[in-house]
């Protein structure tokens, strides 16, 4: 049990005073002069009660200071970019019955058949460095989409073909399909949509991404 308070429990005065004095390195500027403590309780502890000095209220705190600027709760989804349940967000960019959406199991059969193809991983570099399917080509899709969005707004000058465009040209010349994968199946939908916008139709989205791959195909594949 943990309790934050400015009151000292009965019988703990001496212990608390010693602990406070050993941790008191001077007053912090702009803080409440009262002493605040964090009290912990453990049935099997000795002593059962322990206290720790914690920082007092700051006068310039945006929430509890003398002139607070945050006066109400903010929207959780807007602030965190996630749903209130912390459940993964599932985008619906492609139609659910789109023929070019395949399962991780279906893609594993394609790999086993040794059919020539390109596996495109569109996650961020930090995620790709953690784990990836052998032989996959890495092209982060987010910077490409951001660049295209800037072009549409007229905020960007004409640039050379990006890596995704080059890959589409290569796949066309070599007559190879592109299978797109990400972590959960969201970015891969956006990538397939962008490939189609470029005129490349022979592309497939692996539904559920690497999460589905780990669950249904390769249980030893890292999950994060």
Characteristic terms for this protein:
single chain, about 220 residues, alpha/beta, Oxidized Rhodanese, domain 1, 2 domains, five-stranded parallel β-sheet, three-stranded antiparallel β-sheet, 8 helices, 8 strands, about 35% helix, elongated, GlpE_sulfurtransferase, nucleotidyltransferase activity
Explain how this protein is built:
The chain contains eight helices and eight strands; from the N terminus they run E-H-E-E-H-E-H-E-H-E-H-H-E-H-E-H. The strands form two sheets. A five-stranded parallel beta sheet has the order 4-8-7-5-6. It has a three-stranded antiparallel beta sheet with strand order 1-2-3. It has 224 residues and is α/β, with parallel strands linked by helices. It folds into two domains: 2-72, no CATH class; 101-216, Rhodanese-like domain (Oxidized Rhodanese, domain 1). Mean pLDDT is 82; it is low at 8-31. Residues 113-222 form the Rhodanese domain. Keywords: ATP-binding, Cytoplasm, Metal-binding, Multifunctional enzyme, Nucleotide-binding, Nucleotidyltransferase, Transferase, tRNA processing, Zinc. InterPro entries: GlpE_sulfurtransferase (IPR050229), Rhodanese-like_dom (IPR001763), Rhodanese-like_dom_sf (IPR036873). It is found in: Cytoplasm, Cytosol.
């Amino acid at each position: 049990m943990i309790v934050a308070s400015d009151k000292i429990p009965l019988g703990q005065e001496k212990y608390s005073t010693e602990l406070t004095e050993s941790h008191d390195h001077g007053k912090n500027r702009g803080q409440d002069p009262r002493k605040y403590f964090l009290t912990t309780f453990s049935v099997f502890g000795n002593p059962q009660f322990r206290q720790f000095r914690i920082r007092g209220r700051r006068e310039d705190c945006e929430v509890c200071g003398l002139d607070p600027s945050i006066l109400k709760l903010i929207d959780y989804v807007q602030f965190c970019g996630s749903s209130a349940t912390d459940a993964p967000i599932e985008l619906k960019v492609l139609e659910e019955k789109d023929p070019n959406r395949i399962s991780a199991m279906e893609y594993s059969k394609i790999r086993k058949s040794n059919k020539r193809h390109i596996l495109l991983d569109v996650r961020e570099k930090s995620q790709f460095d953690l784990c990836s399917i052998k032989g996959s080509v890495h092209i982060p899709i987010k910077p490409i989409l951001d660049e295209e969005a800037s072009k549409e707004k007229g905020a960007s000058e004409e640039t050379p073909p990006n890596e995704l465009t080059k890959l589409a040209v290569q796949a066309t010349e070599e007559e190879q399909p592109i299978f797109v994968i990400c972590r959960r199946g969201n970015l891969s939908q956006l990538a397939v949509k962008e490939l189609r916008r470029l005129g490349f139709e022979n592309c497939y989205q692996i539904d559920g991404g690497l999460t589905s791959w780990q669950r249904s195909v390769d249980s030893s594949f890292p999950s994060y």
